[in-house]
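ingest -> fold -> write
write: protein_1
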Amino acid sequence: MNPIHSVAIYCASSTKIKPIYYEVARQLGRGLALRGVTQVNGAGNIGLMQAASDAALEAGGRVVGVIPSFMVEQNWHHTGLSEIIETENMEIRKQTINNMTDAAIVLPGGCGTLDEMFEIITLKQLGVYLKPIVILNVDGYYDYLLRHLERSMEENFMRPAHRDIWKVATTAEEAIELVFTTPLIDESVRRFAKI
């Protein structure tokens, strides 16, 4: 079992999405809290970010939000979190979240979520980010993306060994289990970075 004390949650801030996404976000927030794991997210006060945060807080968990100052100025931040960390910009926000967590779980989301997910996948491919990454494929949301990643390997843009960079879950419970059980890697992964 991995020593998991805090997990990054990357997810949508959209409010016009199917109820199943909210349900799984709440299950994830609650499940992490009940295991004593601190949730770290982008501090948003709407969408899946709010749902995961509120569920964790209601279960007695700790939630740390990391958010750029310009978003705080727009009142886009959740004011009820355990802690808010303001950053100068989006890049520092992502770096801060990655540095202070032991794993990452990616819920459905748009361009911002995809940006965060591909950055940590790339960093892991390069042997910089060595922690578990779990894609929570709720209701088949990431099916096409996962197929595209498979094609990237078939077309030799990635090695088949890179398939181990991420794990895929379909439920919150499975995602939580994977962050605890996915084998950790070390810098030796860098030898696979080049095709």
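write: protein_2
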Amino acid sequence: MDTYSAINDVLVKLINEIWELEGKAIITEEFKDITNNDMHIIEAIGTGDGDHMSSVARKVNVTVGTLTSAINSLVKKKYVVRERSEEDRRVVNIRLTEKGIRAYRHHEEYHHQMTEAIIDVLTEEEVPVLMKMLYGIGRFFREYEHRDSQDGETKTEERVRQDS
């Protein structure tokens, strides 16, 4: 197998495995009522005092309208609450409930374990090579997502809308 085919094969399998295994690892009995996409929205909201919808939408790369559908579902399931801003009543902030914070911490622990497993097998010299590779892959996905978004809905928005 040539280098191009080997790299392509590994990348395709790795991306599919990450998505599938992350879903299995983070969607446990306690969190069976949400999707992997929901968990990433919970991650984007974070554990702070709350954030406004447009900021969270930017973090997950969807429109506020697309995010609204997902947030409606997460509010019904008691992972998220909406609150009007005291400074500007037109602004709606969203924050995680205790249940949402538990989901956030669960997801955070999965990512911690995954990152530690990678770091544990690398030498100090290999870390910069991995970082360069990961930045390159990330740049490709950002550019690809941006190119597709010129035609309307991004792939991320499509996944979030389908899950809602």
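write: annotation protein_2
The chain has a mean pLDDT of 87.
Residues 106 and 112 are 10 Å apart (CA to CA).
pipeline exit 0
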